[in-house]
Every structure is written in C-alpha cells, then in structure tokens.
Specification:
Oligomer: heterodimer
CATH topology of chain A: Lipocalin
CATH class of chain A: Mainly Beta
Distance between the termini of chain B: 9 Å
Radius of gyration of chain A: 20 Å
Strand content of chain A: over 45%
Structural class of chain A: alpha+beta
Helix content of chain A: 10-25%
Shape of chain B: elongated
Largest interface: A-B, 12 and 15 residues
Helix content of chain B: over 70%
Number of helices of chain A: 2
Distance between the termini of chain A: 38 Å
Largest sheet of chain A: 8 strands, antiparallel, barrel
Number of domains of chain B: 1
Number of strands of chain A: 11
Strand order of the largest sheet of chain A: 1-4-5-7-8-9-10-11
Order of helices and strands of chain A: HEEEEEEHEEEEE
C-alpha cells in the first residue's frame, strides 16, 4: 500500500513539474499573411501550416516548425503564377514545400530572432528571422520581415527583371491550443 | 448615330453581362468585385462610342467608303486589346487569376461583333 502511494505521489509530482515547465503550443489561425515583394514581382502564399511552441519566458524550449505550400503562390496574374510554379522558378512539382525549422529563438532588443534552417527549392540554409509579438486577448500575433536572395536557393536565373533579393513580410496570428 | 452607337454598346454590354453570369455559374470563378457589372456595361458602351467616332472620322476622310477599312481596323484593335486581360494584375485576394482572361477576352469581341452584326440594320448613311 505504501509503495502504491509512493508511486502515485511520484507520478503526480512528475506531472506537476511537467505541467509547470511545458511550453505553450499555439495554433495558427486563418488570418495569417505571407507577402513577398521584389523589384518586378510581388504576391502572397495562401497556404501556411505548422507547429508553433512559444513562451517568451522559456525561449530555450520554444520552437517554430512551419511550412508554406509553394503551389499556393498568388501574384494576382495567372501567367505569372504559372511561371512562378514552373521548374525555372519554384518547381513546385519537385519541391512542393518551403520549410522553416528553428533551432534557437533569442531575445533581440524589444523583439526576438528565430534562427533556423530554411529549406527552399531543395536547398537548406541557415536563416535568421527577426520578429515581434503582439498580444491580443488569449492570442498572439507574430510579425516579421526578412529578405532572402533567390540565387542562394537557385530560384530563377541570376539577373533579369525580377529582383534577386526578395523581401518577405509575415503576420501570423495564433491562439492557444 | 450617337444614340444608335449607344444602343449597340448597351447590347454588347448586355451580352457581356450574360456571359459573365454564365461563366461564374459554370466555373465558380467570381471576379465581380474587380470587374463589376457596371464596369462590364461601361466598357462596352465606351468601346462602341469610340468605334462610332472612329467610323465617322474615317468615313469623312474616305468620303463614304470607310466600311471595309473600318471593320478591319475595329477587328484588329479588338484582337490587340486581349493582351490587357492576360497582363492584368488582380488583387492577390482574388482567387484563380488564371481564369480572368477566359472571362474578359470574349467580352473584348462583343462590341465588334455587335457592330458587324447590327450596324447595317440600325446605322444607315
């Protein structure tokens, strides 16, 4: 009997410790926006999914693991969309997902930085995404802006009308899971 | 002639409007927020009014022998204008922009179609 109580107490203690240290998981809600702009092309990615675990008091355990559906690109022009999905650009048949997995999230001034690996067009490179946080009720909105050089990921031919540096603006509202 | 061109424009606009309804019903591609029914009618009316002005000027210049030349010019210009829908950049909130030319390209031919079909009957020299 003593053994049973001892086991139960240990289990309860473990659950309590785990609950205390568990980092909040967040669910992405539909009002997100993933915009990109360059010299000649701009648009959005419509489909964005992933797992977000974030606690500003426990950044060490926070992690972003998010995926953009490359085929969901919309530039506002049908011909441009077709061109962007082709093998010359994103090659969505071969590389359907654009993936970012953070390895570290750190505080940077008033905001944060997510350092991780961006897998795009079959190429993985380390990338730092600076972002800030807005709280609204029980939810959060992550907003960030960063640039990637498309040549680093072998997207399109170097030069040409489309700028080589693509600016990406993110706004990702989340609610508690 | 102005009133009759206006009538041609309205008929072309009506044809475009009906085509838009059929297109939206068939493909569930709704562009009515970026290409409103008023814009559909106005573009046809303006097209026909400009055509009648062009016809009047050409007829004065060619002294009553403008029909063939004008019809040819009107048809060629209608073909040239279809580049517009292919190059159009819609707001990114609009779904399936690749279906936009399928909606608007036929509409570019309704004014010239109306002109060639009905002009002999309603616009007499």
């Amino acid at each position: 009997m003593k053994k049973f109580f001892f086991s139960m107490a240990t289990l309860l203690l473990l659950v309590a410790v785990f609950a205390f240290t568990a980092v909040q998981a967040w669910q992405i809600i539909d009002k997100y926006s993933i915009n990109f702009t360059s010299d000649d092309a701009s648009g959005i990615f419509k489909t964005f999914t992933g797992n977000i675990v974030f606690d500003e008091k426990n950044l060490g355990a926070s992690v972003f693991d998010v995926t953009i559906d490359a085929a969901s690109i919309n530039t506002g022009n049908g011909l441009q969309n077709k061109h962007a999905k082709s093998d010359e650009w994103f090659d969505v048949a071969k590389y359907p997902a654009i993936k970012f997995v953070s390895s570290k999230i750190i505080q940077a001034g008033a905001g944060y930085q997510a350092i991780g690996s961006l897998q795009l067009h079959g190429v993985s490179k380390e990338l730092t995404i600076p972002f800030s946080l807005q709280k609204s009720g029980t939810g959060l909105t992550f907003t960030g802006s960063f640039s990637v050089n498309r040549n680093d990921y072998h997207i399109g031919k170097p030069g040409g009308d489309v700028g080589e540096v693509i600016k990406i603006d993110l706004s990702v509202p989340v609610v508690k899971k | 002639m102005l009133k009759k061109s206006l009538l041609l424009g309205l008929l072309a606009g009506l044809a475009s409007f009906i085509y838009q309804k059929v297109y939206i019903g068939a493909l569930e591609a709704d562009f009515s927020k970026v290409f409103t029914p008023i814009a559909v009618f106005m573009s046809s009316v303006v097209g026909c009014l400009l055509a009648s002005l062009g016809y009047w000027l050409l007829d004065k210049w060619m002294k009553g022998k403008a029909d063939l030349a004008f019809n040819l010019i009107f048809a060629i210009l209608s073909f040239v204008t279809i580049l517009g829908p292919f190059a159009a950049k819609l707001p990114v909130s609009v779904e399936s922009p690749e279906l936009f030319p399928g909606l608007t390209v036929p509409m570019h031919f309704f004014p010239v179609l109306g002109w060639l079909t009905l002009k002999p009957a309603i616009i007499k020299k």
